[in-house]
C-alpha cells in the first residue's frame, strides 16, 4: 500500500516509516518539523534504501491537506502528527486542542473527499485515566485524561470512531501506546527531545552521555516493589512493528473502529530502568530522590492480549535490549540530530 505517515519525521513516526518500507509498502510523509529536525530524513533514506517524499506543512492547513490528497495516490494513513508534551498542554491548552483536533478534522475530511478509508491513529494509554484497573484492557469504557494532551487523545478517538461509523468501508485502528523507548539498532535514529526531556528514558540517556548531571527520582514512597513508579516500557521497534501489523489487519477487521493496546504487559520501575541503563552504558548514573510529580500514577501496564491475538503481534525486546539500543543512539549522537 502507499501510506501517508503524518508526523513521520518524529520519534515513533520515523521508526514506523522504516518498518513500513521494510514490509514492502510505499511511504510519503507530512511533517511540519515543529518537534523534529529535517536532518533525520537523510538518515531514514540511508537506512531504508529508498527516497522518502516529504511534504513540509501542518495538517491544520486545510487547503494544503486537500491538495496533498488530490495530487498523491494514498491508500492508507498512519496519523502521528500532534503536540504531545503533557506539562506543556497544561500551560497551553488551547494550542493543544486546536492543533491536535483541527489537524485530525482536516485529515479525516480530505480522506473522505478522496476515498481513503484506512487509518491507524497514534493514541495513548493516557486515555485510561486514573481509575482503570491494571492491567489496562481496551474494553474499559470510562476513558478520561487529567491533561489537555490526554484529553485530545480521548476526543480524537471519539471523533474517529464516529467518522468511521458514518462512512461505509472505513476501517480505523486506535493504537494505545504505553511508554515508548529505545532506538533503531543502527544507532542512527532515536528519541531526540528538544530542551530538557520530560520523559525518563531520554533524561537517563542524557545523564549517561554527560548532558545532565543526575536523575531526580520523582518519589520512592509508592506502593511498589522498590517504591518507585512502574510503567510498561515498549521498544520503539516493537511499536513500529505493531503499526505495520495494525495497518495490514484493517482490511480484515470486522468493525469500523477498534482499539489495541501496544505494550509488553510488564511493569518496570524507575530504579530498575536506571540500573539497566548503568549496565548498558557501563557507568554509574547518579540520582537523588525528590518529591512525587503531580499526576503520576504508581503503576500501570498493558493487557496486550487483544493485539497479540488479533494483530498476531507481540513486543519481543527486553529492557536490556532497550537500554543497549538507546545507549548506542545517544553515545553516537550526544547532541541528538544535527541542525544541518
Ligand atoms: C515515567 C516514570 C516519572 C522523569 C508519559 C505521558 C504519557 C506518554 C508516555 C504520550 C514516572 C518518572 C520521569 C524524571 C522520574 N506520552 N520520572 N524522573 O509519565 O509514565 O508517561 O510519557 O502519550 O502520556 O504521561 O512517562 O517517562 O515521563 O515518566 O522519576 O526525571 O519516570 O515519575 O514515574 P509517563 P515518563
TrEMBL record:
NAD-dependent epimerase/dehydratase domain sequence ranges: 3-263
Broad enzyme group: isomerase
Reactions it catalyzes: UDP-alpha-D-glucose = UDP-alpha-D-galactose
Signal peptide annotation: none
Keyword annotations from UniProtKB, A to Z: Carbohydrate metabolism, Galactose metabolism, Isomerase, NAD
Stored NCBIfam families: galE, PRK10675.1
Protein known as: UDP-glucose 4-epimerase
Amino acid at each position: 500500500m502507499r501510506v501517508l505517515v503524518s508526523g513521520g519525521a518524529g520519534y515513533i513516526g520515523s521508526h514506523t516509516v522504516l518498518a513500513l518500507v521494510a514490509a514492502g509498502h510505499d511511504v510519503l510523509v507530512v511533517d511540519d518539523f515543529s518537534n523534529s529536525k529535517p536532518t533525520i530524513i537523510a538518515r531514514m533514506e540511508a537506512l531504508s534504501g529508498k527516497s522518502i517524499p516529504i511534504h513540509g506543512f501542518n495538517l491544520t492547513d486545510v487547503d494544503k491537506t486537500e491538495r496533498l490528497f488530490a495530487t498523491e495516490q494514498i491508500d492508507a494513513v498512519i496519523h502521528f502528527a500532534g503536540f504531545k508534551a503533557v506539562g506543556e498542554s497544561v500551560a497551553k491548552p488551547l494550542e493543544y486542542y486546536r492543533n491536535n483536533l483541527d489537524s485530525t478534522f482536516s485529515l479525516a475530511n480530505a480522506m473522505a473527499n478522496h476515498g481513503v478509508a484506512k487509518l491507524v491513529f497514534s493514541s495513548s494509554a493516557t486515555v485510561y485515566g486514573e481509575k482503570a484497573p491494571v492491567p489496562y484492557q481496551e474494553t474499559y469504557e470510562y476513558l478520561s485524561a487529567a491533561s489537555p494532551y490526554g484529553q485530545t487523545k480521548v476526543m480524537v478517538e471519539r471523533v474517529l470512531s464516529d467518522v468511521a461509523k458514518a462512512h461505509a468501508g472505513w476501517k480505523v485502528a486506535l493504537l494505545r501506546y504505553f511508554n515508548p523507548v529505545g532506538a533503531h539498532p543502527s544507532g542512527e535514529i532515536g528519541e531526540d527531545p528538544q530542551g530538557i526531556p520530560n520523559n525518563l528514558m531520554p533524561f537517563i540517556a542524557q545523564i549517561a552521555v554527560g548532558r545532565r548531571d543526575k536523575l531526580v527520582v520523582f518519589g520512592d514512597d509508592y506502593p511498589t516493589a522498590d517504591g518507585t513508579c512502574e510503567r510498561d516500557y515498549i521498544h520503539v521497534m516493537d511499536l513500529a512493528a505493531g503499526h505495520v501489523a495494525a495497518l495490514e489487519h484493517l482490511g480484515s477487521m470486522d468493525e469500523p473502529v477498534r482499539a489495541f493496546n501496544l505494550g509488553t504487559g510488564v511493569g518496570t520501575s524507575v530504579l530498575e530502568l536506571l540500573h539497566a541503563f548503568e549496565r548498558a552504558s557501563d557507568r554509574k548514573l547518579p540520582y537523588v530522590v525528590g518529591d512525587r510529580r503531580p499526576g503520576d500514577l504508581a503503576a500501570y501496564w498493558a493487557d496486550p492480549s487483544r493485539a497479540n491475538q488479533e494483530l498476531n503481534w507481540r513486543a519481543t525486546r527486553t529492557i536490556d535490549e532497550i537500554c543497549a539500543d538507546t545507549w548506542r543512539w545517544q553515545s553516537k549522537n550526544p547532541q541528538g540530530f544535527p541542525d544541518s
